[in-house]
Amino acid sequence: MFIFKPILRILYLTIICICLLLFVPQANALNDSAVFAGGCFWCLEHDFESLKGVLSVESGYTGGKTIKPTYKNHKGHQEAIKITFDPLEVSFEELLKTYWRNIDPYDGGGQFCDRGDSYRPVIFYKDNSQYDLANNSLINAAEELSASSNNLAVKIERLDEFWEAEDYHQDFAQRNSVKYKFYRYSCGRDQRLDEVWGVNAREGIKWLKKMP
């Protein structure tokens, strides 16, 4: 009897460990990621953080060849964000909708008051599925704006390596609320978004025409 109880306890713990090994990795494997560049990463990070299904948003650099880029040395890279999301809660298509409504798609020389290659708008894709969806979103955005897709400056490029930015850039809007709000206003970001998208500015879920 005294020997039997420890054996049951060991068996019980073994079953729990097996279940954790089998099911926890599978749950994590369901998570997906998306990488977008659209001007200052402080703003783009803040635009996505509150979306249902978004698990985390990191500011960083990608698109260039510089190894271990920093804020002072990221030549060739764009300021970008990496979104980790639960596709059961929010789809990549919905993230694309939110992305378009938070950028100026006509400006390929930067975004708003931030100028230069580091700030140009790019949708980075990691596989063929994301590539197709990104191209579909470009067509839909052009139709939404009654413009030719050739007149939109957003590029669709293959994702290489995403380098996380310095700690002080992460969650900047939350940790430096006053400074962030002043920067965003003085940069004219929301004013320009209103000019381009009208009442649909910053609204990613409502889309006048459903994406295929």
Give an overview of the whole structure:
- It is a single chain.
- With 212 residues, this protein is of the alpha+beta class.
- It has a single domain, classed as Peptide methionine sulphoxide reductase MsrA (Peptide Methionine Sulfoxide Reductase, Chain A, 2-Layer Sandwich), CATH 3.30.1060.10.
- The chain contains seven helices and eight strands, in the order H-E-H-E-E-H-E-E-E-H-E-E-H-H-H.
- Strands 7-6-1-3-2-8 form a six-stranded mixed sheet, with helices on one face. Strands 4-5 form a two-stranded antiparallel ribbon.
- Strand 6, helix 4 and strand 7 form a beta-alpha-beta unit.
- Helix 3 packs across helix 4.
- It is globular, with a radius of gyration of 21 Å.
- The C terminus is likely disordered.
- Has an important function as a repair enzyme for proteins that have been inactivated by oxidation. Catalyzes the reversible oxidation-reduction of methionine sulfoxide in proteins to methionine.
- Belongs to the MsrA Met sulfoxide reductase family.
- Pfam families: PMSR (PF01625).
- InterPro entries: Met_Sox_Rdtase_MsrA_dom (IPR002569), Met_Sox_Rdtase_MsrA_sf (IPR036509).
- Keywords: Oxidoreductase, Signal.
